Amino acid sequence: MKNMPHSFAVFGLGRFGTSLVSHLAQADVEILAVDREMARVNTVVDQVDRCVTGDASDEALLKKLDIAQFDVVVFAMGEEFESSVMATMIAKELGAPHVVVKALAPRQAAILRRVGADQVVLPEVEIGAKVAQQLVDPNVLDVLDRAGVTISEQHPDEAWVGKNIIEADLRNRAGLNVLAVVRNGAVQVPVDVDQPLQASDILITLAASKTE
């Protein structure tokens, strides 16, 4: 049986990184937390064994922290893609055994895997999938599938960005019913139909399958 990881280094203490630290703190594991901003570091100081202010893409810092000693290294700076790429490459070169990196889009995830990431997480996409499962019972999904109805997730088309759901007229123009919107990691159910759509939103939609 594979040994469970006992030590974690988490870089990037935004919403995702802070949530990760909070959940890890409930387990009997060693945690190092790192962020560029002292204010963010201070928010988790009571939950971790050690906290440091610094840049995850700074090779000297990663060497000083002896990053290879941690069972799992997490780079949670999704909004700083270039830093995530550099940090991943450096961590693997220094011998980090398991590097987990946050990405904001599938294309970013593919690049991060190419440069050495052992695991890539797309929190918003994964939240979208979970919401879809929670919204519809598995048995109901089977019934919908047989009836030619599908539930899927997608980013808004360019023509929809800046318009609300009513203005975009998704039901009539695209045959879509929007069940939920995932924005910045937060799930909106029910959907605010007056809120303008953003390019980074993930729409959980229900639609009839096309027939030829």
UniProtKB/TrEMBL annotation:
SUPFAM superfamilies: NAD(P)-binding Rossmann-fold domains (SSF51735), TrkA C-terminal domain-like (SSF116726)
Keywords: Ion channel, Ion transport, Transport
Keyword Ion transport: yes
A GO biological-process term: monoatomic ion transmembrane transport
Domain (RCK C-terminal) ranges: 133-212
Domain RCK N-terminal: 5-122
Protein's recorded name: Potassium channel family protein
Organism placement in taxonomy: Bacteria, Bacillati, Bacillota, Bacilli, Lactobacillales
